[in-house]
From TrEMBL, chain A:
Pfam families: SUFBD_core, SufBD_N. The gene is sufD. Residues 10-172 form the SUF system FeS cluster assembly SufBD N-terminal domain. It comes from Dyadobacter linearis. Residues 182-411 form the SUF system FeS cluster assembly SufBD core domain. This is FeS cluster assembly protein SufD. Belongs to the iron-sulfur cluster assembly SufBD family.
From TrEMBL, chain B:
The keyword Transmembrane helix does not apply. Belongs to the ABC transporter superfamily. Ycf16 family. It comes from Dyadobacter linearis. Keywords: ATP-binding, Nucleotide-binding. The keyword Acetylation does not apply. Residues 2-246 form the ABC transporter domain. It holds the Pfam family ABC_tran. It comes from the Bacteria. InterPro entries: AAA+_ATPase, ABC_transporter-like_ATP-bd, FeS-cluster_ATPase_SufC, P-loop_NTPase. This is ATP-dependent transporter SufC. The lineage of its organism: Bacteria, Pseudomonadati, Bacteroidota, Cytophagia, Cytophagales.
Length: 439, 252
């Protein structure tokens, strides 16, 4: 073996210990000990293969056969990122470039009394105890190599803390930029969002790649939704043809809380999103919306879990996909209803339009119900475009491409209209319209 | 205006239209009647350009241009309109947005500038009034959850907005009560002019009380087997189709 072919796993583990060896007292900290334990689990688990049931249709072979610079510098300026324009005064916008917080680009408008927004690297210095009450508490039993890897290398990302009884008016928008203009880059943002009792927060994570190098993003977000709290969480992926993205969002909801998730994958070479929600209190309401729109040879995989642990809660899920060219989609939606979770309502639906004979979609609803008084329903459809509708529209003078565009846009609208941060929704509408017009 | 010459069409290898000849001049209204399964909808669909049907022979000239090679949207832009026997439901696309796209695509085809929002709305409101179409329907998804009558009225409303030169109505009257029928007829009659023409496919004489045709044709087994003045419709109403079928069988 030459040094160049040292595999990614070995290289990462070696890096970890090399870094550890130059740490001072920090190595003994609770934070580092959690990371160390995660590294050991990553060492055991490794990267998943298609023999792993959860990764059956999504091979990461190509991803792990590349090398990435996880510490690369970048001189990104705002002008490079003008695709998503958000009026200054309307939102807190926090930038992470190649995984690291960028203070120069970021701006915050909300008051410190309402919300703490800080980079994880800063938060762990300022208030390690607070960070440690949350860090890796939701993900410690993930059993997922990528998640353990992220934990082991957790260094930067966002730390948001909303105390009790606050309604944060301005959304928090996190922009993650992978600058692959000069080399292959890796980044592993780690985000912690803790929203207190009866508090309300809207937020978004937007991922973007610059340049034509490969980028590998391995993101983990832990979200704590307090009693009677409400959190809206949107994830927007508009990355490059060379971008690998593995993302896990792990959510725990307490009684009478509400959580809305919108996951929109517009572009990217390989995308895997895990959205895991534990409804850990009575009368919770979880909503999950998803939209994916791959073309070329892109691959998009959404795995979701709604884990009902207490009675009287509701989960509601709608994922939609349009697949073109030779693209592939995967949807796996799990619903668990634990023995205690009587009177659960759980709905799941996944609808797909496959526009080319070479594109494919794999859907798998998975219901595990251990309570008897529950209402659960699920349904998946995968179909072609409705030719009858197309002819109707064309007979009124609308050209075939324009008619297709209208139909597709309408198909997406069920999901897009659920996104209640105006600037994000408008951005999506524009990008989708452009994508539809491009073919 | 429209000149159909020995038109033949088939679907899934089965010949449905077996040599249709029909001449429609500007200003005329032609009624096409005939038993179920005769090929009336097939003829209407072939004229509008439905691609499932294979045209196996003959020609169709519209204002001197051969239309069989044209895409459905080109035919619409040339001025042909088909009111569907079974209008399609299109979730997520509002009637108003759909029509705005249609109007402006047609204007583009004709080299005209698009209507702005205000001009368009004004025009649409007038036409909606003409067919007593409720404003609230315009904002709903096209035909989605509309009653049968609402769908048919929507067809006539779209026709009024698009102002075609040749309107083809495929059983627009079926399933309508007498008030709705009158409204549909008024919509059609309001478009009647020396420059326009209409082909009205119907089962029933009663629509023809309101839209008085210049000619009546009977389509049977893929051919026009009888043509006559408007009185032919009355005769068919009275005697049914058996005598025509008998005449055809006797000849063959
Ligand atoms: N899509 C189709 N596939 C197969 N056969 C069809 C199709 N459409 C029409 N036909 C057949 O063509 C014939 C004529 O149908 P149609 O034009 O609908 O008649 P009409 O409108 O006069 O009742 C019928 O025998 C019908 O079964
Ligand atoms: Mg018919």
């Amino acid at each position: 073996m030459t040094t160049e072919t040292i595999d990614l796993k070995t290289k990462l583990i070696t890096d970890f210990y090399a870094r550890e060896s130059v740490m001072n007292g920090e190595a003994a900290s609770a934070f580092h000990q959690k990371k160390r334990a995660a590294l050991a689990r990553f060492d055991q688990l490794g990267f998943p293969t298609v023999r792993n049931e959860e990764w059956k249709y999504s091979s990461v072979k190509e991803l792990v056969n590349e090398s990435y610079n996880f510490n690369s510098e970048s001189n990104v300026v705002l002008a490079d990122l003008e695709d998503l324009k958000i009026p200054e005064q309307d939102a807190n916008i926090i930038y992470f470039v190649n995984g690291r917080y960028n203070a120069e680009l970021s701006r915050m408008v909300s008051s410190q009394a309402q919300i703490t927004i800080s980079s994880l690297s800063e938060a762990i210095k300022k208030d390690p105890q607070l960070v440690n009450t949350y860090f890796n508490e939701l993900t410690k039993e993930s059993g997922e190599g990528f998640t353990e890897l992220n934990t082991a290398f957790a260094q930067d990302g966002i730390f948001i803390h909303v105390p009790d009884n606050q309604t944060v008016e301005h959304p928090v928008i996190l922009r993650f930029v992978a600058d692959a203009r000069t080399q292959n880059v890796g980044n592993q943002p780690r985000n912690i969002i803790a929203v207190g009792r009866n508090s309300h927060l809207k937020m978004a994570e937007a991922f973007r790649t610059l340049g034509s190098g490969r980028s590998f993003t391995n993101a983990v977000t832990e979200i704590y939704v307090g009693e009677e709290a409400g959190v809206e969480y949107y994830k927007v992926q508009n990355e490059s043809e060379q971008a690998y993205h593995i993302g896990t969002t792990q959510v725990r909801m307490l009684a009478r809380s509400q959580f809305y998730a919108g996951t929109v994958t517009l572009n990217g070479r390989f995308t895997r999103n895990n959205l895991n929600i534990i409804l850990d209190g009575e009368r919770c309401e979880a909503h999950m919306y998803g939209l994916y729109f791959p073309d070329g040879t892109q691959h998009v995989d959404n795995h979701t879990v709604a884990d009902h642990r207490k009675p009287n809660s509701e989960s509601n899920e709608l994922y939609k996909g349009i697949l073109r060219d030779k693209s592939k989609g995967v949807f796996n939606g799990k619903i668990f209803v634990r023995p205690d979770a009587q009177k659960t309502n759980a709905f799941q639906s996944c609808k797909n339009i496959v526009l080319s004979p070479e594109a494919s979609m794999n859907t798998k609803p998975q219901l595990e119900i251990y309570a008897d008084d529950v209402k659960c329903s699920h349904g998946t459809t995968t179909g072609q475009i409705d030719e009858e509708a197309l002819f109707y529209m064309r007979s009124r003078g609308i050209s075939r491409p324009e008619a297709l565009s209208l139909l597709m846009f309408a198909f997406c609208a069920d999901v897009v209209s659920q996104i209640r941060i105006d600037s994000i929704r408008e951005y999506l509408e524009n990008v989708i319209a452009e994508k539809l017009a491009s073919k | 205006m429209l000149s159909i010459n020995d038109l033949r069409a088939s679907i899934e290898g089965k010949e449905i239209l077996k040599g249709i000849n029909l001449e429609v001049k500007a200003g005329e209204v032609h009624a096409i009647m005939g038993p179920n399964g005769s090929g009336k909808s097939t003829l209407a669909s072939v004229l509008a350009g439905r691609e499932e049907y294979e045209v196996t022979g003959g020609s169709v000239l519209f204002e001197g241009k051969g239309i069989l090679e044209m895409a459905p949207e080109e035919r619409a832009a040339e001025g042909i309109f088909l009111a569907f026997q079974y209008p399609v439901e299109i979730p997520g696309v509002t009637t108003i947005n759909f029509l705005k796209t249609a109007v402006n695509e047609i204007r583009k085809y004709r080299g005209e500038s698009p209507l702005d929002a205000a001009q368009f709305l004004k025009m649409v409101r007038e036409k909606a009034k003409l067919v007593s179409m409720n404003d609230s329907l315009l904002k709903r998804a096209l035909n989605e959850g509309f009653s049968g009558g609402e769908k048919k009225r929507n067809e006539i409303f779209q026709m009024a907005v698009l102002e075609p030169k040749l309107a083809i109505l495929d059983e627009t009257d079926s399933g309508l009560d007498i008030d709705a029928l009158r409204i549909v007829a008024e919509g059609v009659n309001s478009l009647r002019s020396p420059e326009r023409a209409a082909i009205v496919v119907t089962h029933y004489q009663r629509l023809l009380d309101y839209i008085v045709p210049d000619f009546v044709h009977v389509l049977y087994k893929g051919r026009i087997v009888k043509s006559g003045p408007k009185e032919l419709a009355l005769e068919l109403e009275e005697k049914g189709y058996d005598w025509i079928k008998a005449e055809v069988e006797a000849l063959s």
